UniProtKB/TrEMBL annotation:
Its cofactor is pyridoxal 5'-phosphate. It is an enzyme of class 2 (transferase). GO terms for biological process: amino acid metabolic process. It holds the Pfam family Aminotran_1_2. Belongs to the class-I pyridoxal-phosphate-dependent aminotransferase family. One of its GO terms (molecular function) is L-aspartate:2-oxoglutarate aminotransferase activity. This is Aminotransferase. Homodimer. It comes from Maricaulis virginensis. It comes from the Bacteria. Its EC number is 2.6.1.-. Keywords: Aminotransferase, Pyridoxal phosphate, Transferase. It catalyses: L-aspartate + 2-oxoglutarate = oxaloacetate + L-glutamate.
Amino acid sequence: TFTPSAALQRVQPSATLAVTQKARDLKAKGIDVISLGAGEPDFDTPDHIKEAAIDAIRRGETKYTAVDGIPELKDAIVKKFRRDNGLEYMAAQVHVSTGGKPVIYNALLASLNPGDEVIIPAPYWVSYPEMVNLVGGTPVPIRAGIESRFKITPEQLEAAITPKTRWLILNSPSNPTGVGYTAAELKALADVLLRHSHVWVMTDDMYEHIVYEGYEFATIAQVEPKLYDRTLTMNGVSKAYSMTGWRIGYAGGPQALIKEMGKVASQTTSNPCSISQWASVAALNGDHSFLEARNAAFLRRRGLVLEAINASDGLVAPTPEGAFYVFADCSGTLGKTAPDGTRIENDTDFCSALLEAEAVAVVPGVAFGLEPGFRISYATDDASLKEAGLRIQRFCASLK
Ligand code: PLP
């Protein structure tokens, strides 16, 4: 028999698996499932980025590189932070790894000791608490419900901080809710952190460029420069440039931390793919005008989803500022019974019954640490979203 390590025994298997597996089973049976579970843009990587990768292959950029990024990419990242965020980082303060996820993991592994606490607003991106568990830290979720538009307050942050707090993780715009903090809201959270000099902050800015209707993206080190020396500003090319498969993420932060993150990478992943790094140079330095049309499409799709959710009995969702997710509260459906006799006790029941009855796959809120609700990803075509919206409304109307 095989016994997994104690570290892995602390990690939960993905709660989204049940739903996605069920969707796959139904599809295999020939049922027309609309899957709104995926967390990636349906757009292709822009051509100028692909061309840069092809050129890199032709030039022979196919060997090991510096572990934490080629100088050209670090330079592009330095310029990006200056241009978009008003942040000054030197190349030695920049870490590049094989996606945004490993950047976060390298930072946690480099900094956490057993028992160290990491404050994570819930609903959260599923990997934060599990990565903290994996390295032996303790995730401390703060509940941010629909009543606060899924954002934490300064009072909640103050109450969650203990002498063992090592990090606060912020993700704005958020996966799974799409809501974004304003600069003023970030400043209010920063004011709390200024009173607790032992707490560092990791900001996951992956959705910076996917924002709507005049929402102005801000990141905490920019809003409160006094936090610069204890902020890790993390970002990546996956979402903005539709480069999920290329696996490049990066961060800027204090040099001592960045150095240790490089040490982690040097003994685990080594450098991220050389070709992807050159593609990312082209992405960051290149023309960004393609974003406008893509964001216009996302905005239209967000409208389709919100319209359907808010027209459904028992569902309600706030209007998100960014990303490509809507998080719907389904508390109005609890205690009801589906036509096949299933009683809806929680959001997992809701999502399973919706999938059974109408073949629409969405991810239950429990997976993101906030019940009862579910996440819809609208990174798919308009026709599928319209049809899914009709099915969700019909399903909710069928509940008795
Ligand atoms: N952070 C957030 C909030 C995300 O939604 C994702 C992707 O789902 C990531 C990080 C990870 O990105 P990557 O694919 O670059 O590892």
